[in-house]
Structures are given as C-alpha cells and as structure tokens.
C-alpha cells in the first residue's frame, strides 16, 4: 500500500494532476486525495484548482459536473462504470410536461443527476445548499428532481413554496430503515443519530441531526456526545474517525450502507488513470454549455 501511495504522489507531480475524492470512496483513495469532500465542496473546488488534470474519484455525475465547470481541463474518472442509479431517476419528458402545466415553476435539479437532466434545469443544488437556494427562488412552484426524500425534507421547511415531487431515491439511503435505526439505538442508547436528508422521513424523524455528509462530520466534531449512529454511506466513517478519534461511530442495523458504485473507485484504478490519461470525461460542447448555467447559478446562490 505504501508503494502505491508513493506511486500516486509521483504520478501527480509528473502529470500536473490534482485528485478530488468523495467521502464515500474507499479509505485508501481518500488518503491519497488532495481534496476530500461532499458533492458541493467538490463542485466548488473543481473551479478553483490550478491543475490542468483533475482526477475525480467518485461516480459519473461528479466527473461530468467537474468537466462542465472546467471545459478546458482534462477530467479523469478512474472507473467509467461507476454510476449513480438515482442520477437517472427523472425524465426529460416529465420535466417538459411540468413546464407546460405550471407557469411559475423552477426546475431544481439535485447535483446527483445526469448532465442531460441538468441541461433542462433552472438551477442545481446539493444537500448542503438546497434549502438556501430553494428559499431564494422567486417561483411559486418548485419541481425538485430526482430525489424524493431530499425534496420532502426541504419542502417541510418551506411551507410557503409549492413543491412538485419526483419519485427518485438513493439506493443506499433508502435502504436505511427506521427499525434498523431503533435497533442500533437500543444497542447504543447514549449515541446520537445523525442522518442524511436522502434518508426517508421515517428515518430523519428519529435523528438528532439531519444534514449533508459534510454537515454530519462538522456536527460530530463540535458536539459533546461520545458516540453516534450514522445514517449515510459508510465511507464517511473514515473521515469521522480521523477527525474525532476519541468518539465512536456505528451504522444503523439491517443494511450495508455501502454504495457499490463508489467502491468501484480503487487505488489501482487511480494509478491507471494517471498513467494512461483515461478514462476521460467527454461531453458535447453545446451540451456542456447548456448544463453549465444551472451549475454556475448554484455556486452564485450559495455564496
């Protein structure tokens, strides 16, 4: 492992590359990354790095977003087959039908979506900034795609808005069930429950804190409890234990909390991407230009 890490460091220098990794990829990949964060952080940092080659360690929509925001740079995705099923859980036909039905509607697209869906949106959001952005929109109606659970979580906090819901969901978060949280709580009665808003309302109702992956980490760092039940993908445990070595973190029971697509991104594939310059994210320039606007609007409204 040490030899592979040194190899990555050498290749980064030789290729003038920077490695961005999501909290959900395997521990070894997070260890070699220059920046580790959630979807919002990665989209922000992708616009600020000077390196001409970005190795995006995550799923396809993250690589697409990095390329859309940096059309002149090379964006490498270590595993081109690492995809997010939820990213496809909305249709252009439904979006067009909504626009035809409602005059004053904003299509709000969760960043966990394909580039095609982004081209049809008014603005993108992440779990970190969805509330702030939806609140700031002047539109009466909000069609939130593709995740239904995040949409319901935000809608409950904005009763003045009229939300139109899609039926998409994250396979990992949707598999976390309230009975599994209760079982973990029974086993660790002093633990606080931290949940991602992609979980169902029946799970977030049991949580002491609900927020994005970065929000969960920040809460655990600042909070005075010593143990937590963490309801999100298990890759975040690496960062939690690094930042809070004196605290304990437990999963909910009855599910794996593992994203098989995120786990396709391995250290060997990072090395291969750096050595070969492939697989690279390629997007039609006109297509990428159309998807740029909602992503850029997200960054502007998040400030």
Mind explaining what this structure looks like?
With 303 residues, this protein is of the alpha/beta class. The chain has 3 domains: 2-81 and 262-283, 3-Layer(aba) Sandwich (Rossmann fold); 86-169 and 291-301, Rossmann fold (3-Layer(aba) Sandwich), CATH 3.40.50; 176-251, Rossmann fold (3-Layer(aba) Sandwich), CATH 3.40.50.10800. Helices cover 43% and strands 17% of the residues. It contains 15 helices and 12 strands. The chain has helices at residues 2-15, 27-32, 39-46, 60-69, 92-101, 115-119, 130-136, 148-155, 171-174, 178-187, 201-204, 213-222, 236-243, 267-276, 285-301, and strands at 17-22, 35-37, 53-57, 74-76, 105-110, 123-125, 141-145, 162-165, 192-195, 209-210, 227-231, 248-251. The strands form 3 sheets. It has a 4-stranded parallel sheet, with helices on both faces. The protein has a 4-stranded parallel sheet with strand order 6-5-7-8, with helices on both faces. Strands 10-9-11-12 form a 4-stranded parallel sheet, with helices on both faces. Helix 1 packs parallel to helix 14, helix 4 (60-69) crosses helix 15 (285-301) and helix 12 (213-222) packs parallel to helix 13 (236-243). The protein is globular. The protein starts with a helix and ends with a helix. The model has no long low-confidence stretch (mean pLDDT 97).
């Amino acid at each position: 492992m040490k030899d592979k890490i040194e190899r990555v460091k050498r290749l980064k220098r030789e290729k003038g590359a920077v490695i961005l990794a999501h909290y959900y990829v395997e521990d070894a990949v997070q260890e070699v990354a220059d920046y580790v964060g959630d979807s919002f952080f990665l989209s922000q940092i992708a616009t600020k790095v000077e390196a001409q080659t970005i190795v995006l360690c995550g799923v396809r929509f993250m690589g697409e977003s990095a390329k859309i925001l940096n059309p002149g740079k090379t964006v490498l995705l270590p595993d081109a087959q690492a995809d997010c099923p939820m990213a496809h859980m909305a249709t252009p036909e439904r979006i067009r039908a909504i626009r035809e039905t409602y005059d004053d509607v904003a299509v709000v697209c969760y960043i966990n979506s394909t580039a095609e869906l982004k081209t049809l949106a008014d603005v993108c959001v992440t779990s970190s900034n969805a509330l702030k952005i939806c609140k700031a929109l002047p539109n009466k109606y909000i069609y939130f795609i593709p995740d239904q659970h995040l949409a319901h979580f935000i809608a409950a906090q904005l009763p003045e808005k009229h939300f139109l819901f899609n039926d998409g969901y994250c396979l990992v978060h949707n598999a976390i069930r309230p009975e599994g949280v209760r079982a973990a709580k029974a086993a660790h009665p002093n633990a606080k429950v931290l949940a991602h808003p992609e979980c169902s309302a029946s799970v977030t109702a049991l949580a002491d804190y609900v927020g994005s992956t970065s929000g969960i980490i920040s809460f655990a760092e600042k909070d005075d409890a010593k143990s937590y039940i963490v309801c999100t993908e298990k890759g975040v445990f690496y960062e939690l234990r690094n930042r809070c070595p004196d605290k304990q973190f437990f999963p909910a029971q009855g599910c794996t909390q593992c994203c098989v697509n995120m786990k396709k991104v391995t250290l060997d594939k990072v090395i291969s991407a750096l050595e070969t310059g492939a697989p690279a994210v390629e997007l039609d320039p006109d297509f990428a230009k159309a998807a740029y606007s909602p992503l850029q609007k997200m960054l502007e409204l998040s400030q």
